[in-house]
Amino acid sequence: MLKRVAYGLVVMGLAVSAPLAAQEEKEKDPPKTAKQLSPDEQVQQLEKQANETQQEYTRLMAQMRTYPAKFWAIAEKNPKTTAAKNALSWILRNGRTDPTLMQRAAKQFLADYLTDKDVLNTLPLLGQVAGGDTESLYRRILKENPHSDVKGGAAYYLANTIVGNDLRGGTLSPQREAELIKQLESLKKDCGDGEYRGRPVATMIDGMLFEIQHLQIGKTAPEISGEDIDAAPFKLTEYRGKVVVIDFWGDW
Amino acid sequence: MYPHERSLVERLKDKPFALLGVNSDPKDRVKAALERENISWRSFWDGGNTSGPIATQWNVRAWPTIYVLDHKGVIRYKNVRGEAMDKAVDTLLAEIGEAGGAK
Prior knowledge:
The complex is a heterodimer.
Chain A: H1 2-28, H2 39-64, H3 67-77, H4 82-94, H5 99-112, H6 126-129, H7 134-144, H8 148-163, H9 166-169, H10 174-191, E1 195-196, E2 199-200, H11 201-214, E3 225-227, E4 233-235, E5 243-249
Antiparallel strand pairs in A: 1-2, 3-4
Chain B: H1 2-11, E1 17-23, H2 27-36, E2 42-45, H3 53-57, E3 65-69, E4 75-78, H4 82-99
Parallel strand pairs in B: 1-2
Antiparallel strand pairs in B: 3-4
């Protein structure tokens, strides 16, 4: 019993002395510097700074959104000039915040500068612009624009337009298959050695042709010959006799 | 993806079935994924990125892309996932059962 009392007194003594010591420190020190902020105060300060930065960011973003229309105004006032071309080109490259204006800029750019190298930036937008007649637009660009990367891009988008959604579902009628092959082979000739985003378009068309001819439902799967993650070689045909799921995957 | 694949492989472990991956990750990443996700099925390593030789030849432009082959190596389903994949595989296994193992 006595031990417990003694223990209690010691604890009380410690409890009383600690705050006293802290108070002494408070009176001694000058105003706290950043380093001496308590963790709670540090968090508060950071929150305030983050809020201010966020507000500034919002203000700047709103300001950025006014630019497409400003560029458009110049292009409208000075049609068929270098200034208009560059203004429209800016919108094509940076006008994401105003998609309607981007499409109008693409349409105008094609109307006035069909042979320019910056037609490249109109290509991803033509799906919405042409309103159903994208194929002939791409064909026109392919025919009349001399720049090899523009040709490459137009051929790439044209190939995708021709093939459409046919390949996703996996079944093609023999007629459709023949038609697609004919159009793609012809397109391959026209696009020459054009590239799109660093990849030769002829190679991409070859990929589509391979898929049409060998990777549809009803076709025997081509052989895959490679190595596993431990570098051990193996082949798809080793699994003949089994039902196989091939799963192209990545860990992202 | 991984839980469904794992359960499919587990369920069919005594059947004539194989799940084969074609992986586009860098080596260290895929190795980490194999461990983390308990991936028991085999994968071709396609060179470490999405432009590898197998994905290029098979014109793969979206991931994941799925092909289901029957026991003769014929493509029977494309891009089926989850329950649809289960049904497809079970249908094709039944074909082997119906054929009584004959080729």
